[in-house]
Specification:
The chain is α+β, with helices and mostly antiparallel strands. The chain has two domains: 3-147, 2-Layer Sandwich (Ribosomal Protein S5, domain 2); 151-282, 2-Layer Sandwich (Alpha-Beta Plaits). Helices cover 37% and strands 24% of the residues. The strands form two sheets. Strands 1, 2, 3, 4 and 5 form a five-stranded antiparallel beta sheet that branches. A four-stranded antiparallel beta sheet has the order 7-8-6-9. It starts with 5 loop residues before the first strand and ends in a 7-residue tail after the last strand. The mean pLDDT is 91.
């Protein structure tokens, strides 16, 4: 296999900003190991449907196959956006398309990932997945700030739940006139607080965002039920569903010293498929 054609893209979750980012272009994406590995080669392989679609657009891809190694047995965590990003990087490396900036990269993604129905995908995952850490993104300003203060401040648990909502399908069900001004305000507050390492304001912004999401009926019932069970836990500082309806991922923040205790208590929970502890060895 030609290593020159192998791309590593990080797993991702939205820390805050889903729905708001679709209209305002701002949000925080947390990228963490394990990574997706995307390889382009000529060996026989069953192509990913996204790659097959892109082959029709770019003749240079038609002699290649895309081999995808996902570290997640049950999917999710940005696999589809990772495929788009790997192809974009491949096309840039071979000078098929120009290397550019956040705005033009996003427009390339939107051209190929959106069919024009419902809310536009934010593309923030596509823009951030090559890099680990917490990415504060203002797409409209072509600005991305990467910080590692999240994993330096909190113990982080990422729970892969047993329900799944397909993001692109879900966004098609939402009226494009959906008003996300308040969600964007809370997102901006969280970005400012994280930049200044203001833990209290940051947690308050996450809480306010979650409450606003619920007021729009944008939280999966099983997520609501799970959160109602774990939120009273004295060692949990914040818990929220992430992504489409908060369905397939729940983020839990604790103090670093309490992370292992909470992990042990939740590891056998019937609603959880797997719990990731990104960067936990750094504490």
């Amino acid at each position: 296999m030609d290593k020159h054609h192998t791309h590593q893209l990080y797993s991702k979750i939205f820390l805050i900003g889903e729905y708001a980012a679709c209209q305002h272009g701002r949000g925080i994406v947390f990228c963490f190991p394990p990574v997706f590995e995307m390889s382009f080669h000529t060996a026989p392989n069953t192509n990913d449907p996204i790659f097959s679609k892109l082959q029709l657009k770019y003749p240079c891809l038609q002699s290649l196959n895309c081999h995808i190694h996902s570290p997640h047995r049950h999917g999710g965590f940005g696999q589809s956006s990772a495929v788009f990003r790997a192809v974009h990087q491949h096309l840039c490396d071979h000078q098929i398309i120009p290397t550019s900036n956040l705005k033009t990269d996003y427009m390339w993604y939107l051209q190929h990932a959106w069919d024009g129905h419902g809310l536009t995908p934010s593309g923030l995952d596509f823009l951030s997945q090559p890099f680990p850490g917490c990415h504060l993104i203002d797409r409209d300003q072509s600005q991305i700030i990467t910080t590692h203060c999240l994993q330096e401040t909190f113990g982080i648990l990422i729970c892969h739940m047993k329900q799944k909502v397909a993001t692109h399908t879900h966004l098609k069900t939402i009226d494009p006139s959906f008003n996300s001004e308040v969600l964007d305000e809370y997102t901006q507050n969280a970005m400012n607080a994280l930049t200044h390492r203001d833990t209290s304001t940051f947690l308050s912004a996450l809480e306010a965002f979650q409450n606003e999401i619920r007021s729009h009926d944008l939280e999966h019932p099983q997520t609501t039920a799970f959160l109602s069970q774990i939120t009273p836990h004295p060692l949990i500082q914040h818990a929220r569903g992430c992504g489409a309806l908060g369905a397939d991922v729940v983020l839990i923040l604790t103090k670093p010293a309490h992370c292992n205790t909470v992990y042990q208590e939740l590891s056998k929970h019937e609603a959880i498929q797997h719990i990731y502890r990104p960067f936990h060895n750094e504490h």
